[in-house]
Write a structure and sequence with these properties.
Blueprint: H1 30-33, E1 36-42, E2 47-49, H2 50-55, H3 62-78, E3 82-83, E4 92-97, E5 102-110, E6 126-134, E7 139-145, E8 151-157, H4 167-181
Parallel strand pairs: 1-3, 1-4
Antiparallel strand pairs: 1-2, 4-7, 5-6, 7-8
């Protein structure tokens, strides 16, 4: 016997405006209590620390690199946090992601030797790798409790990580200062 299937509409939380989740923008006191932070690139499906990015430079877009450098300089100038290169030692992980609608990556490898090519194989390998990413056009600054911890703070907006004083960082700084004064 066939049973009818009911469809329940699902609204993805990340599509809703943050203000719909409880009225006021509640900033966790943890942001003001922390001392050590690590910086990372938000790749969409994973995070890549500053140190890891040195070994894998092709995974980081120039816009993301510029944004992280700017955030690093502003954190150092602010003096509230100490930046560590080891995310496991950090109390907070601050991640940047520059806005992009879509990006594509492709590579082709021709040549080289196959393992065990011997008399039966030509010794030539051929292969290709393709990747496509679709994302928000808004810049994003996210703060997590430690490496792999829960999200504590996030904002995004067009052009929010560009310029000499990125507005996303300024908003983050203002929220931390406000919660430090009134915990």
């Amino acid at each position: 016997m066939l049973r009818p299937v009911s469809c329940v509409p699902v609204v993805l939380p990340f599509l809703l405006a943050p203000s719909l989740f409880g009225g006021s923008n509640k900033v966790p006191a943890r942001l003001a209590q922390a001392r050590y932070v690590a910086l990372a690139y938000d790749l969409g499906d994973s995070m890549l620390s500053e140190a890891e990015a040195l070994a894998k430079p092709a995974r980081v877009l120039p816009e993301d690199r510029d944004a992280l450098t700017s955030v690093r300089n502003l954190i150092e100038k602010w003096g509230r946090y100490v930046i560590t290169i080891r995310p496991a030692q950090a109390e907070l992980l601050i991640a940047v992601r520059s806005g992009r609608r879509a990006s594509a990556e492709a590579s082709v490898r021709i040549g080289g030797r196959r393992q065990g090519g011997g008399a039966t194989g030509s010794g030539v390998t051929m292969g290709s790798l393709y990747g496509v990413e679709v994302s928000s056009g808004d810049d994003m600054l996210s703060v997590y409790e430690g490496a792999g911890g829960p999200l504590l703070w996030r904002e995004q907006r067009p052009g929010g990580l560009s310029g000499s004083s990125p507005t996303l960082f300024e908003d983050f700084k203002a929220d931390v200062e406000r919660v430090a004064k009134h915990p």
